[in-house]
Amino acid sequence: MDRKEYDQLAESLKPTGHKMKNAFYAFLYGGVIGAIAQGVLEFFMNVYHVKQEDATPMMIITLVFISCLLTGLGIYDKLAQKAGAGTFIPITGFANSMTSCALDSQSEGLIMGIGSNMFKLGGTVITYGIVSSALLGVIRYVITLFG
Amino acid sequence: MNYIMAFLFSGFVCLIAQLIYDHSRLTPGHITSLFVVLGSFLDLFHIYDRLVDIFHAGALIPITSFGHSLMHGAMAATKEYGVFGIAMGMFDLTAAGISAAILFGFLVAILFKPKS
Amino acid sequence: MSLHFLGNSVTLENVYIVSSGTVCGPLEYLGPLGSCFDKSLQDYHYGEKSFEKAERKMLRDALDICLKREKLKYKDIDLYLGSDLLNQITSVNYLARELPQPFVGLYGACSGFALSMAMAGLLIDAGYVDKIVTMVSSHNATAERQYRYPVEYGVQKKDTTTFTATGAVSTLLTNQPQSVRVEAITLGRVIDYSQNDANDMGRAMAPAAFDTLMNHFQDLKRTFHDYDLVVTGDLSMYGHQILKEMLQRHKMDVVRYNDCGCMLYDLSSQPVFQGGSGCACSALVTMGSLYPQLKDKKLKRVLVVSTGALLSPMMSAQKESIPCIAHAISLEAIE
Q: What is the ipTM of this complex?
Protein backbone atom coordinates (compact mmCIF):
# COMPACT_ATOMS: atom_id res chain seq x y z
CA MET A 1 0.00 0.00 0.00
CA ASP A 2 1.59 3.29 -1.01
CA ARG A 3 1.29 6.53 0.91
CA LYS A 4 -1.35 8.09 -1.28
CA GLU A 5 -3.55 5.03 -1.04
CA TYR A 6 -2.98 4.97 2.71
CA ASP A 7 -4.02 8.59 3.06
CA GLN A 8 -7.22 7.89 1.14
CA LEU A 9 -7.99 4.90 3.35
CA ALA A 10 -7.26 6.82 6.56
CA GLU A 11 -9.30 9.80 5.40
CA SER A 12 -12.29 7.57 4.65
CA LEU A 13 -12.30 6.16 8.18
CA LYS A 14 -11.62 9.44 9.98
CA PRO A 15 -13.92 9.89 12.98
CA THR A 16 -16.73 12.27 12.13
CA GLY A 17 -16.09 15.31 14.26
CA HIS A 18 -18.56 17.57 15.96
CA LYS A 19 -17.75 20.66 13.95
CA MET A 20 -21.27 22.10 14.09
CA LYS A 21 -21.49 21.50 17.82
CA ASN A 22 -18.00 22.92 18.38
CA ALA A 23 -18.86 26.06 16.41
CA PHE A 24 -22.08 26.52 18.38
CA TYR A 25 -20.34 26.15 21.76
CA ALA A 26 -17.50 28.46 20.70
CA PHE A 27 -20.10 31.11 19.80
CA LEU A 28 -22.04 30.55 23.01
CA TYR A 29 -19.09 30.59 25.42
CA GLY A 30 -17.36 33.43 23.60
CA GLY A 31 -20.59 35.40 23.65
CA VAL A 32 -21.21 34.75 27.33
CA ILE A 33 -17.70 35.93 28.20
CA GLY A 34 -18.36 39.06 26.12
CA ALA A 35 -21.64 39.67 27.97
CA ILE A 36 -19.98 39.15 31.36
CA ALA A 37 -17.28 41.61 30.33
CA GLN A 38 -19.99 44.11 29.41
CA GLY A 39 -21.57 43.67 32.82
CA VAL A 40 -18.25 44.20 34.61
CA LEU A 41 -17.50 47.19 32.41
CA GLU A 42 -20.82 48.87 33.17
CA PHE A 43 -20.41 48.07 36.85
CA PHE A 44 -17.10 49.92 37.03
CA MET A 45 -18.45 52.79 34.90
CA ASN A 46 -21.31 53.26 37.36
CA VAL A 47 -19.36 52.74 40.57
CA TYR A 48 -16.43 55.00 39.75
CA HIS A 49 -18.33 57.28 37.38
CA VAL A 50 -15.71 56.98 34.68
CA LYS A 51 -15.80 56.74 30.92
CA GLN A 52 -15.66 53.44 29.09
CA GLU A 53 -11.96 53.92 28.20
CA ASP A 54 -11.01 54.26 31.83
CA ALA A 55 -13.16 51.37 33.00
CA THR A 56 -11.70 49.03 30.34
CA PRO A 57 -8.45 48.22 32.22
CA MET A 58 -10.44 47.51 35.39
CA MET A 59 -12.72 45.16 33.47
CA ILE A 60 -9.72 43.40 31.90
CA ILE A 61 -7.98 42.98 35.26
CA THR A 62 -11.15 41.49 36.75
CA LEU A 63 -11.57 38.99 33.94
CA VAL A 64 -7.90 38.07 33.98
CA PHE A 65 -8.19 37.45 37.72
CA ILE A 66 -11.22 35.18 37.28
CA SER A 67 -9.47 33.28 34.49
CA CYS A 68 -6.28 32.77 36.54
CA LEU A 69 -8.31 31.55 39.49
CA LEU A 70 -10.30 29.10 37.37
CA THR A 71 -7.02 27.82 35.90
CA GLY A 72 -5.60 27.26 39.37
CA LEU A 73 -8.73 25.40 40.42
CA GLY A 74 -8.44 23.15 37.36
CA ILE A 75 -11.75 24.31 35.87
CA TYR A 76 -10.61 26.36 32.88
CA ASP A 77 -9.20 23.43 30.88
CA LYS A 78 -12.44 21.51 31.39
CA LEU A 79 -14.46 24.47 30.10
CA ALA A 80 -12.06 24.84 27.18
CA GLN A 81 -12.57 21.25 26.07
CA LYS A 82 -16.17 22.17 25.33
CA ALA A 83 -15.80 25.82 24.37
CA GLY A 84 -12.74 25.59 22.10
CA ALA A 85 -12.08 29.00 20.60
CA GLY A 86 -14.75 30.40 22.90
CA THR A 87 -12.23 30.32 25.71
CA PHE A 88 -8.90 30.86 23.94
CA ILE A 89 -9.84 33.92 21.90
CA PRO A 90 -11.01 36.20 24.75
CA ILE A 91 -8.32 37.81 26.91
CA THR A 92 -9.11 35.13 29.51
CA GLY A 93 -7.42 32.62 27.21
CA PHE A 94 -4.24 34.69 27.28
CA ALA A 95 -4.35 34.74 31.08
CA ASN A 96 -4.94 30.99 31.07
CA SER A 97 -1.94 30.33 28.82
CA MET A 98 0.34 32.34 31.13
CA THR A 99 -1.03 30.80 34.31
CA SER A 100 -1.01 27.23 33.04
CA CYS A 101 2.62 27.53 31.90
CA ALA A 102 3.64 28.99 35.24
CA LEU A 103 1.67 26.42 37.21
CA ASP A 104 3.00 23.57 35.11
CA SER A 105 6.60 24.63 35.71
CA GLN A 106 6.31 25.14 39.45
CA SER A 107 8.07 21.82 40.08
CA GLU A 108 11.19 23.24 38.38
CA GLY A 109 11.43 26.10 40.83
CA LEU A 110 10.97 29.87 40.83
CA ILE A 111 13.56 30.88 38.23
CA MET A 112 14.04 27.93 35.87
CA GLY A 113 10.41 26.97 36.24
CA ILE A 114 7.82 29.68 36.78
CA GLY A 115 9.96 32.66 35.78
CA SER A 116 11.35 31.39 32.53
CA ASN A 117 8.34 29.41 31.33
CA MET A 118 5.48 31.81 31.97
CA PHE A 119 5.54 33.25 28.45
CA LYS A 120 6.11 29.90 26.73
CA LEU A 121 2.68 29.92 25.06
CA GLY A 122 1.41 33.45 25.69
CA GLY A 123 4.60 35.11 24.47
CA THR A 124 3.75 34.59 20.81
CA VAL A 125 0.73 36.89 21.15
CA ILE A 126 2.85 39.67 22.65
CA THR A 127 5.65 39.20 20.11
CA TYR A 128 3.46 39.36 17.04
CA GLY A 129 1.23 42.03 18.55
CA ILE A 130 4.25 44.30 19.01
CA VAL A 131 5.91 43.45 15.71
CA SER A 132 2.78 44.08 13.70
CA SER A 133 1.81 47.18 15.66
CA ALA A 134 5.28 48.68 15.28
CA LEU A 135 5.32 47.97 11.56
CA LEU A 136 1.85 49.33 10.96
CA GLY A 137 2.54 52.16 13.40
CA VAL A 138 5.50 53.33 11.35
CA ILE A 139 3.38 53.21 8.21
CA ARG A 140 0.66 55.30 9.83
CA TYR A 141 3.18 57.71 11.28
CA VAL A 142 4.70 58.28 7.86
CA ILE A 143 1.25 58.79 6.38
CA THR A 144 0.40 61.40 9.02
CA LEU A 145 3.73 63.17 8.44
CA PHE A 146 3.02 63.62 4.76
CA GLY A 147 -0.72 63.59 4.98
CA MET B 1 -29.03 46.06 24.31
CA ASN B 2 -25.34 46.54 25.05
CA TYR B 3 -25.25 43.04 26.47
CA ILE B 4 -26.69 41.51 23.32
CA MET B 5 -24.27 43.47 21.16
CA ALA B 6 -21.34 42.36 23.32
CA PHE B 7 -22.56 38.76 23.23
CA LEU B 8 -22.98 38.74 19.46
CA PHE B 9 -19.62 40.25 18.53
CA SER B 10 -17.52 38.31 21.03
CA GLY B 11 -19.33 35.12 20.03
CA PHE B 12 -18.82 35.90 16.36
CA VAL B 13 -15.05 36.36 16.70
CA CYS B 14 -14.82 33.08 18.64
CA LEU B 15 -16.94 31.34 16.01
CA ILE B 16 -14.55 32.41 13.23
CA ALA B 17 -11.58 31.20 15.29
CA GLN B 18 -13.29 27.87 16.00
CA LEU B 19 -13.97 27.35 12.30
CA ILE B 20 -10.28 27.96 11.55
CA TYR B 21 -9.28 25.62 14.40
CA ASP B 22 -11.56 22.81 13.24
CA HIS B 23 -10.69 23.05 9.55
CA SER B 24 -6.92 23.41 9.76
CA ARG B 25 -3.93 22.15 11.70
CA LEU B 26 -3.34 25.57 13.28
CA THR B 27 -2.92 25.55 17.05
CA PRO B 28 -4.49 28.11 19.40
CA GLY B 29 -1.06 29.82 19.41
CA HIS B 30 -1.23 30.33 15.65
CA ILE B 31 -4.80 31.56 15.71
CA THR B 32 -4.39 34.01 18.59
CA SER B 33 -1.25 35.46 16.94
CA LEU B 34 -3.16 35.82 13.69
CA PHE B 35 -6.02 37.60 15.43
CA VAL B 36 -3.71 39.99 17.25
CA VAL B 37 -2.12 41.00 13.95
CA LEU B 38 -5.62 41.38 12.50
CA GLY B 39 -6.58 43.62 15.42
CA SER B 40 -3.66 45.97 14.92
CA PHE B 41 -4.32 46.01 11.18
CA LEU B 42 -7.93 47.02 11.75
CA ASP B 43 -6.69 49.87 13.92
CA LEU B 44 -4.69 51.21 10.98
CA PHE B 45 -7.80 52.83 9.53
CA HIS B 46 -9.56 53.34 12.88
CA ILE B 47 -12.02 50.57 12.06
CA TYR B 48 -11.53 48.90 15.42
CA ASP B 49 -12.47 52.08 17.28
CA ARG B 50 -15.84 52.03 15.55
CA LEU B 51 -16.31 48.40 16.51
CA VAL B 52 -15.63 49.29 20.15
CA ASP B 53 -18.17 52.13 19.93
CA ILE B 54 -20.83 49.74 18.67
CA PHE B 55 -20.10 46.52 20.54
CA HIS B 56 -18.38 47.86 23.70
CA ALA B 57 -17.01 44.96 25.78
CA GLY B 58 -17.78 42.54 22.94
CA ALA B 59 -14.97 44.15 20.93
CA LEU B 60 -12.72 44.75 23.94
CA ILE B 61 -12.58 41.19 25.20
CA PRO B 62 -11.37 39.14 22.18
CA ILE B 63 -7.59 39.00 21.72
CA THR B 64 -7.95 41.19 18.60
CA SER B 65 -8.40 44.13 20.95
CA PHE B 66 -4.91 43.44 22.28
CA GLY B 67 -3.41 44.30 18.90
CA HIS B 68 -5.68 47.29 18.66
CA SER B 69 -4.62 48.58 22.10
CA LEU B 70 -0.92 48.09 21.36
CA MET B 71 -1.28 50.07 18.16
CA HIS B 72 -3.46 52.69 19.81
CA GLY B 73 -0.99 53.33 22.62
CA ALA B 74 1.88 53.50 20.14
CA MET B 75 0.07 55.99 17.90
CA ALA B 76 -0.99 58.21 20.80
CA ALA B 77 2.62 58.50 21.97
CA THR B 78 3.89 59.47 18.50
CA LYS B 79 2.00 62.78 18.84
CA GLU B 80 4.32 63.72 21.67
CA TYR B 81 7.57 61.89 20.99
CA GLY B 82 7.57 61.36 17.24
CA VAL B 83 8.69 58.03 15.88
CA PHE B 84 10.15 56.99 19.25
CA GLY B 85 6.64 57.10 20.65
CA ILE B 86 5.89 53.83 18.84
CA ALA B 87 8.12 51.95 21.25
CA MET B 88 7.44 54.19 24.25
CA GLY B 89 3.68 54.07 24.09
CA MET B 90 3.30 50.47 22.93
CA PHE B 91 2.30 49.10 26.31
CA ASP B 92 0.37 52.14 27.55
CA LEU B 93 -3.07 50.59 27.18
CA THR B 94 -2.22 46.89 27.45
CA ALA B 95 -0.11 47.22 30.59
CA ALA B 96 -3.09 46.42 32.82
CA GLY B 97 -3.86 43.11 31.12
CA ILE B 98 -0.28 41.91 30.91
CA SER B 99 0.69 42.98 34.42
CA ALA B 100 -2.43 41.40 35.86
CA ALA B 101 -1.82 38.16 33.98
CA ILE B 102 1.79 37.99 35.17
CA LEU B 103 0.92 38.85 38.75
CA PHE B 104 -2.10 36.56 39.13
CA GLY B 105 -0.38 33.85 37.11
CA PHE B 106 2.57 33.95 39.47
CA LEU B 107 0.35 33.88 42.56
CA VAL B 108 -1.65 30.95 41.24
CA ALA B 109 1.58 29.09 40.40
CA ILE B 110 2.76 29.62 43.98
CA LEU B 111 -0.50 28.80 45.74
CA PHE B 112 -2.04 26.04 43.63
CA LYS B 113 -0.99 22.63 42.38
CA PRO B 114 -1.67 21.43 38.83
CA LYS B 115 -4.65 19.09 38.93
CA SER B 116 -4.56 16.89 35.86
CA MET C 1 20.45 -13.11 9.56
CA SER C 2 21.63 -15.75 11.96
CA LEU C 3 20.40 -19.29 12.32
CA HIS C 4 17.84 -18.32 14.89
CA PHE C 5 16.14 -15.43 13.16
CA LEU C 6 13.45 -16.23 10.62
CA GLY C 7 13.12 -12.92 8.81
CA ASN C 8 12.50 -10.48 11.65
CA SER C 9 11.17 -13.11 14.03
CA VAL C 10 12.59 -15.61 16.50
CA THR C 11 10.93 -18.51 18.22
CA LEU C 12 12.08 -18.82 21.83
CA GLU C 13 12.48 -22.10 23.71
CA ASN C 14 12.76 -21.39 27.44
CA VAL C 15 11.46 -17.98 28.33
CA TYR C 16 8.80 -17.98 31.01
CA ILE C 17 6.84 -15.28 32.79
CA VAL C 18 7.00 -15.78 36.55
CA SER C 19 5.08 -12.88 37.96
CA SER C 20 4.04 -9.32 37.37
CA GLY C 21 3.17 -6.16 39.24
CA THR C 22 0.68 -3.64 37.88
CA VAL C 23 -0.14 -0.15 39.13
CA CYS C 24 -2.78 1.90 37.32
CA GLY C 25 -4.07 5.47 37.40
CA PRO C 26 -7.49 6.67 38.56
CA LEU C 27 -9.16 6.60 35.15
CA GLU C 28 -7.77 3.14 34.35
CA TYR C 29 -9.14 1.90 37.66
CA LEU C 30 -12.62 3.08 36.68
CA GLY C 31 -12.33 1.38 33.28
CA PRO C 32 -13.57 -2.11 32.39
CA LEU C 33 -10.31 -3.77 33.53
CA GLY C 34 -10.02 -1.78 36.76
CA SER C 35 -10.30 -4.80 39.04
CA CYS C 36 -7.42 -6.61 37.28
CA PHE C 37 -4.69 -4.34 38.60
CA ASP C 38 -2.72 -4.81 41.81
CA LYS C 39 -2.77 -1.20 42.91
CA SER C 40 -4.31 2.07 41.79
CA LEU C 41 -3.62 5.77 42.23
CA GLN C 42 -6.22 8.03 43.79
CA ASP C 43 -4.82 11.11 42.09
CA TYR C 44 -2.06 11.92 39.61
CA HIS C 45 0.30 13.22 42.29
CA TYR C 46 0.38 9.96 44.25
CA GLY C 47 1.56 11.88 47.32
CA GLU C 48 4.64 13.23 45.52
CA LYS C 49 5.67 16.80 44.74
CA SER C 50 5.79 16.44 40.97
CA PHE C 51 4.18 14.24 38.35
CA GLU C 52 7.59 12.87 37.36
CA LYS C 53 8.22 11.70 40.91
CA ALA C 54 4.76 10.17 41.01
CA GLU C 55 5.58 8.16 37.89
CA ARG C 56 8.78 6.90 39.48
CA LYS C 57 6.92 5.92 42.64
CA MET C 58 4.45 3.94 40.54
CA LEU C 59 7.34 2.11 38.91
CA ARG C 60 8.88 1.27 42.28
CA ASP C 61 5.54 0.00 43.59
CA ALA C 62 5.05 -2.19 40.51
CA LEU C 63 8.56 -3.60 40.92
CA ASP C 64 8.05 -4.28 44.62
CA ILE C 65 4.74 -6.05 44.04
CA CYS C 66 6.27 -8.18 41.29
CA LEU C 67 9.27 -9.27 43.39
CA LYS C 68 7.29 -9.72 46.61
CA ARG C 69 5.08 -12.31 44.92
CA GLU C 70 8.15 -14.49 44.44
CA LYS C 71 9.78 -13.41 47.70
CA LEU C 72 12.78 -12.07 45.82
CA LYS C 73 15.06 -9.17 46.66
CA TYR C 74 16.42 -6.55 44.24
CA LYS C 75 19.82 -8.30 44.16
CA ASP C 76 18.34 -11.69 43.19
CA ILE C 77 17.63 -10.38 39.70
CA ASP C 78 20.42 -10.63 37.11
CA LEU C 79 19.40 -7.76 34.88
CA TYR C 80 16.81 -5.00 34.79
CA LEU C 81 15.37 -3.59 31.57
CA GLY C 82 13.32 -0.42 31.63
CA SER C 83 11.46 1.84 29.26
CA ASP C 84 9.24 4.89 29.53
CA LEU C 85 8.11 7.86 27.49
CA LEU C 86 10.01 10.80 28.91
CA ASN C 87 13.16 12.52 27.69
CA GLN C 88 16.28 10.61 28.77
CA ILE C 89 13.88 7.83 29.84
CA THR C 90 13.85 9.71 33.11
CA SER C 91 11.56 7.53 35.18
CA VAL C 92 13.39 4.22 34.78
CA ASN C 93 16.88 5.74 34.75
CA TYR C 94 16.28 7.57 38.03
CA LEU C 95 14.64 4.53 39.58
CA ALA C 96 17.64 2.42 38.53
CA ARG C 97 19.79 4.34 41.04
CA GLU C 98 18.19 2.16 43.69
CA LEU C 99 18.94 -1.10 41.91
CA PRO C 100 22.06 -3.07 42.91
CA GLN C 101 22.23 -4.98 39.62
CA PRO C 102 22.95 -4.10 35.97
CA PHE C 103 20.34 -2.02 34.22
CA VAL C 104 19.66 -1.32 30.56
CA GLY C 105 17.37 1.53 29.56
CA LEU C 106 15.45 1.10 26.32
CA TYR C 107 13.46 3.61 24.35
CA GLY C 108 10.72 2.65 21.95
CA ALA C 109 8.09 5.22 22.89
CA CYS C 110 4.81 3.39 23.49
CA SER C 111 6.27 0.14 22.14
CA GLY C 112 8.50 -0.05 25.25
CA PHE C 113 6.60 -2.95 26.76
CA ALA C 114 7.00 -5.40 23.87
CA LEU C 115 10.50 -4.09 23.20
CA SER C 116 11.69 -4.81 26.75
CA MET C 117 9.96 -8.20 26.80
CA ALA C 118 11.51 -9.14 23.46
CA MET C 119 15.00 -8.11 24.60
CA ALA C 120 14.56 -10.03 27.86
CA GLY C 121 13.38 -13.05 25.87
CA LEU C 122 16.43 -12.99 23.59
CA LEU C 123 18.88 -12.65 26.48
CA ILE C 124 17.31 -15.43 28.50
CA ASP C 125 16.94 -17.77 25.55
CA ALA C 126 20.57 -17.23 24.61
CA GLY C 127 21.49 -18.38 28.10
CA TYR C 128 23.22 -15.23 29.23
CA VAL C 129 20.96 -14.53 32.18
CA ASP C 130 18.49 -16.42 34.36
CA LYS C 131 16.21 -13.77 35.79
CA ILE C 132 15.27 -10.51 34.14
CA VAL C 133 12.80 -7.88 35.30
CA THR C 134 11.30 -5.53 32.72
CA MET C 135 9.76 -2.26 33.88
CA VAL C 136 7.65 0.13 31.85
CA SER C 137 5.62 3.15 32.82
CA SER C 138 3.75 6.12 31.46
CA HIS C 139 1.91 8.93 33.19
CA ASN C 140 -0.74 11.09 31.58
CA ALA C 141 0.41 14.40 33.07
CA THR C 142 4.15 13.91 32.44
CA ALA C 143 3.47 12.90 28.84
CA GLU C 144 1.11 15.84 28.32
CA ARG C 145 3.73 18.20 29.71
CA GLN C 146 6.44 16.87 27.48
CA TYR C 147 4.66 16.15 24.23
CA ARG C 148 1.71 18.53 24.22
CA TYR C 149 0.71 21.42 26.47
CA PRO C 150 0.79 22.28 30.18
CA VAL C 151 -1.85 20.21 31.93
CA GLU C 152 -4.03 23.19 32.85
CA TYR C 153 -3.85 24.85 29.42
CA GLY C 154 -7.28 25.32 27.94
CA VAL C 155 -6.97 23.68 24.57
CA GLN C 156 -9.71 21.74 22.87
CA LYS C 157 -8.38 18.29 22.04
CA LYS C 158 -9.09 17.07 18.54
CA ASP C 159 -11.33 14.07 17.93
CA THR C 160 -8.42 11.91 16.82
CA THR C 161 -6.43 12.45 20.05
CA THR C 162 -5.47 9.51 22.22
CA PHE C 163 -5.21 9.61 26.00
CA THR C 164 -1.90 8.59 27.58
CA ALA C 165 -2.58 5.83 30.08
CA THR C 166 -1.23 6.18 33.60
CA GLY C 167 0.39 3.10 35.00
CA ALA C 168 3.50 1.08 35.63
CA VAL C 169 4.13 -2.60 35.03
CA SER C 170 6.95 -4.91 36.11
CA THR C 171 7.37 -8.40 34.73
CA LEU C 172 9.74 -11.09 35.95
CA LEU C 173 11.00 -13.53 33.33
CA THR C 174 13.20 -16.63 33.80
CA ASN C 175 14.35 -19.79 32.06
CA GLN C 176 12.68 -22.05 34.68
CA PRO C 177 9.39 -23.58 33.44
CA GLN C 178 6.22 -21.75 34.49
CA SER C 179 2.64 -21.75 33.25
CA VAL C 180 3.06 -18.99 30.64
CA ARG C 181 5.91 -18.53 28.21
CA VAL C 182 7.07 -16.01 25.65
CA GLU C 183 7.01 -18.18 22.61
CA ALA C 184 8.03 -15.95 19.74
CA ILE C 185 8.98 -12.37 19.06
CA THR C 186 9.06 -10.17 15.99
CA LEU C 187 11.15 -7.03 16.00
CA GLY C 188 9.81 -4.06 14.14
CA ARG C 189 11.22 -1.78 11.49
CA VAL C 190 10.85 1.97 11.64
CA ILE C 191 8.03 2.86 9.27
CA ASP C 192 7.13 6.38 8.21
CA TYR C 193 4.09 6.99 6.05
CA SER C 194 4.59 10.78 6.00
CA GLN C 195 2.04 11.40 8.72
CA ASN C 196 2.80 14.55 10.66
CA ASP C 197 -0.19 15.20 12.89
CA ALA C 198 0.91 14.71 16.50
CA ASN C 199 -2.75 14.67 17.51
CA ASP C 200 -3.39 11.62 15.38
CA MET C 201 -1.12 8.86 16.62
CA GLY C 202 -3.35 5.96 15.59
CA ARG C 203 -3.16 6.97 11.97
CA ALA C 204 0.60 7.46 12.12
CA MET C 205 1.28 4.10 13.80
CA ALA C 206 -1.10 1.79 11.95
CA PRO C 207 1.36 1.16 9.05
CA ALA C 208 4.08 0.15 11.53
CA ALA C 209 1.73 -2.30 13.23
CA PHE C 210 0.73 -3.62 9.81
CA ASP C 211 4.36 -4.16 8.81
CA THR C 212 5.23 -6.03 11.99
CA LEU C 213 2.07 -8.15 11.88
CA MET C 214 2.62 -9.14 8.25
CA ASN C 215 6.27 -9.96 8.96
CA HIS C 216 5.28 -12.03 11.94
CA PHE C 217 2.71 -14.03 10.01
CA GLN C 218 5.02 -14.55 7.03
CA ASP C 219 8.13 -15.42 9.05
CA LEU C 220 6.37 -17.97 11.22
CA LYS C 221 3.82 -19.07 8.58
CA ARG C 222 0.89 -18.22 10.80
CA THR C 223 -2.44 -16.42 10.47
CA PHE C 224 -4.90 -14.81 12.86
CA HIS C 225 -6.40 -18.28 13.37
CA ASP C 226 -3.29 -19.45 15.22
CA TYR C 227 -4.09 -17.01 18.02
CA ASP C 228 -6.91 -16.76 20.52
CA LEU C 229 -6.40 -13.04 20.55
CA VAL C 230 -4.29 -10.51 18.69
CA VAL C 231 -3.95 -7.10 20.32
CA THR C 232 -2.22 -3.97 19.12
CA GLY C 233 -0.75 -1.62 21.70
CA ASP C 234 -2.29 1.81 21.35
CA LEU C 235 -3.64 2.40 17.89
CA SER C 236 -6.92 3.51 19.50
CA MET C 237 -10.31 3.22 17.83
CA TYR C 238 -9.35 5.10 14.67
CA GLY C 239 -6.00 3.39 14.09
CA HIS C 240 -7.53 0.03 14.91
CA GLN C 241 -10.10 0.50 12.15
CA ILE C 242 -7.43 1.60 9.68
CA LEU C 243 -5.25 -1.44 10.46
CA LYS C 244 -8.21 -3.79 10.11
CA GLU C 245 -9.04 -2.34 6.72
CA MET C 246 -5.38 -2.55 5.61
CA LEU C 247 -5.18 -6.20 6.63
CA GLN C 248 -8.43 -7.03 4.90
CA ARG C 249 -7.22 -5.41 1.70
CA HIS C 250 -4.24 -7.76 1.91
CA LYS C 251 -6.60 -10.72 2.02
CA MET C 252 -6.01 -11.46 5.69
CA ASP C 253 -8.87 -13.00 7.62
CA VAL C 254 -9.00 -10.65 10.61
CA VAL C 255 -10.51 -12.47 13.56
CA ARG C 256 -10.23 -11.99 17.32
CA TYR C 257 -8.35 -8.74 16.92
CA ASN C 258 -8.60 -5.87 19.38
CA ASP C 259 -6.63 -2.86 20.55
CA CYS C 260 -5.38 -2.33 24.10
CA GLY C 261 -6.31 1.36 23.92
CA CYS C 262 -9.93 0.36 23.39
CA MET C 263 -9.89 -2.41 26.02
CA LEU C 264 -8.43 -0.35 28.86
CA TYR C 265 -11.21 2.25 28.87
CA ASP C 266 -14.90 2.46 28.30
CA LEU C 267 -14.77 4.68 25.23
CA SER C 268 -18.43 5.62 25.37
CA SER C 269 -18.39 7.05 28.88
CA GLN C 270 -14.78 7.94 29.74
CA PRO C 271 -13.16 11.15 28.43
CA VAL C 272 -10.37 9.43 26.50
CA PHE C 273 -11.28 10.44 22.91
CA GLN C 274 -10.11 7.63 20.60
CA GLY C 275 -8.72 5.48 23.44
CA GLY C 276 -5.60 4.90 25.46
CA SER C 277 -1.96 5.18 24.47
CA GLY C 278 1.43 5.10 26.17
CA CYS C 279 3.77 2.35 27.34
CA ALA C 280 1.46 1.47 30.19
CA CYS C 281 -1.50 0.90 27.88
CA SER C 282 -0.38 -2.37 26.27
CA ALA C 283 1.51 -3.37 29.43
CA LEU C 284 -1.49 -2.98 31.74
CA VAL C 285 -3.84 -4.83 29.41
CA THR C 286 -1.37 -7.66 28.75
CA MET C 287 -0.07 -8.22 32.26
CA GLY C 288 -3.25 -7.20 34.09
CA SER C 289 -5.86 -8.97 32.02
CA LEU C 290 -4.40 -11.32 29.39
CA TYR C 291 -1.66 -12.89 31.53
CA PRO C 292 -4.08 -14.14 34.25
CA GLN C 293 -6.35 -15.51 31.51
CA LEU C 294 -3.38 -17.38 30.00
CA LYS C 295 -2.49 -18.72 33.44
CA ASP C 296 -6.06 -19.98 33.91
CA LYS C 297 -5.94 -21.56 30.42
CA LYS C 298 -8.84 -19.38 29.27
CA LEU C 299 -6.59 -18.25 26.45
CA LYS C 300 -4.08 -20.49 24.69
CA ARG C 301 -1.97 -18.12 22.69
CA VAL C 302 -1.95 -14.33 22.43
CA LEU C 303 -0.04 -11.97 20.16
CA VAL C 304 0.74 -8.52 21.55
CA VAL C 305 1.90 -5.89 19.08
CA SER C 306 3.02 -2.79 20.96
CA THR C 307 3.13 0.25 18.72
CA GLY C 308 5.25 3.33 19.26
CA ALA C 309 5.40 6.75 17.65
CA LEU C 310 9.02 7.84 17.87
CA LEU C 311 8.23 11.52 17.56
CA SER C 312 10.12 14.39 19.09
CA PRO C 313 8.17 17.64 19.57
CA MET C 314 11.21 19.52 18.29
CA MET C 315 11.28 17.56 15.03
CA SER C 316 7.51 17.95 14.68
CA ALA C 317 7.99 21.72 14.94
CA GLN C 318 10.61 21.40 12.18
CA LYS C 319 7.84 19.88 10.04
CA GLU C 320 9.25 16.34 9.98
CA SER C 321 6.87 13.41 9.75
CA ILE C 322 6.53 10.86 12.53
CA PRO C 323 8.63 7.67 12.44
CA CYS C 324 6.77 4.73 13.97
CA ILE C 325 7.67 1.26 15.16
CA ALA C 326 5.93 -1.86 16.41
CA HIS C 327 7.30 -4.94 18.17
CA ALA C 328 5.38 -8.17 18.65
CA ILE C 329 5.55 -10.82 21.36
CA SER C 330 3.59 -14.03 21.38
CA LEU C 331 2.57 -15.42 24.78
CA GLU C 332 1.52 -19.03 25.18
CA ALA C 333 -0.01 -21.05 28.02
CA ILE C 334 1.83 -24.29 28.83
CA GLU C 335 -0.21 -27.48 29.00
A: 0.94
CA distances from C313 to A107, B22, C84, C234 (A): 21, 21, 16, 19
Tell me if C13-174 shares its fold with C180-333. Answer: yes
Assigned CATH topology for domain C180-333: Peroxisomal Thiolase; Chain A, domain 1 (3.40.47)
Residue pLDDT, tens place only, C75-112: 999 999 999 999 999 999 999 999 999 999 999 999 99
Among C44, C156, C197, the residue with its CB nearest the CB of B116 is: C44
Q: What is the distance of C-alpha C78 from the center of its chain? A: 22
Q: Does B115 touch chain A (CB under 8 A)?
A: yes
Give me the DSSP letters along C143-164: HHHHHS--TT---PPPTT--EE
Residue C321's pLDDT is 95
- State the residue range of the domain holding A52: 19-120
Give A20-59 pLDDT, tens digit per residue: 999 999 999 999 999 999 999 999 999 999 999 999 999 9
* Segments of chain A scoring below 50 in pLDDT: none
Q: Do B116 and C155 touch (CB under 8 A)?
A: no
What are the residue ranges spanned by the domains of chain B? Answer: 2-111
In a domain, A109, yes or no: yes
Q: How far is C243 from chain B (nearest CA, A)?
A: 24
CB contact under 8 A, C154 and A93: yes
Q: Cβ B33–A125 below 8 Å, yes or no?
A: yes
CATH of domain C13-174: 3.40.47.40
Q: Is residue A141 part of a domain?
A: no
Q: If we measure between CA atoms, which residue out of C116, C174, C167 comes closest to residue C285?
A: C167
Residues 6+ apart with CB under 8 A from C177: C14, C16, C334
Residues of A in contact with B7 (CB under 8 A): 31-32, 34-35, 38
Domain map (residue ranges) of chain C: 13-174, 180-333
